[in-house]
Amino acid sequence: MTFHPQIDGETEVVNKMIAHIQCMYNFENPCTWDENLPYVQYSYNSYLHNSTDHSPFQLGLGFYPLCPIDVVIPFVAIQLHLAHVQAKFDRDNNFIECI
Questions:
Q1: Do both 42 and 53 map to the same domain?
Q2: Whole-Å CA distances, 19 to 7, 26, 38, 51, 59
Q3: 71 and 59 in a common domain
Q4: DSSP readout, 8-56?
Q5: Residue 42: phi, psi to the nearest 5?
Q6: Using CB atoms within 10 A as the burial measure, which of 27, 63, 72, 83 is most buried?
Q7: Band of pLDDT at residue 21, cut at 50, 70 and 90
Q8: For 32, which DSSP code?
C-alpha cells in the first residue's frame, strides 16, 4: 500500500493559490519559479485575508514585519516600530490595571 499523507483543506487552498501566483509571475520564463518563490511567499503572507481580516504575518507574529522599502525609508520604519511599541505598552498597562 502506498503512503498518502492527508492534508487539510486550508493547506490545499494555500498551495493552489501559491501555484496560481507562480504561474502568473513565471508565464514567460517558467524555469525561474524557484527564484521568485520568496517574493511570492512574502506577498501572500502580508496580504490581508477576508476570512480573518488579518494577514498571516499578523496572526503568526503579532505584528507586520518590515518590508524591503522600510530599509530604504528608515523614518517610516521607526514610526511604525514606535507605534507598535506604544500599542504593546498600552495593552500591557491595561492588563495590569485589570488585575
A1: yes
A2: 16, 10, 13, 20, 23
A3: no
A4: -HHHHHHHHHHHHHHHHHTSS-GGGHHHHHHHHHHHHHHSPPTTTSS-H
A5: -65, -45
A6: 63
A7: confident
A8: G
Query: pTM score > 0.70 for this model?
Result: no
Residue with cell 524555469: 31
- What's the domain count of the chain? 2
For 6-33, what is the mean pLDDT? 81
Same domain, 22 and 45: yes
Same domain, 31 and 76: no
49 and 79 in a single domain? The answer is no
Q: Are residues 57 and 77 in the same domain?
A: no
Asked whether the predicted pLDDT for residue 33 surpasses 80, the reply is yes
In the numeric block, which cell numbers belong to residue 32?
Answer: 525561474
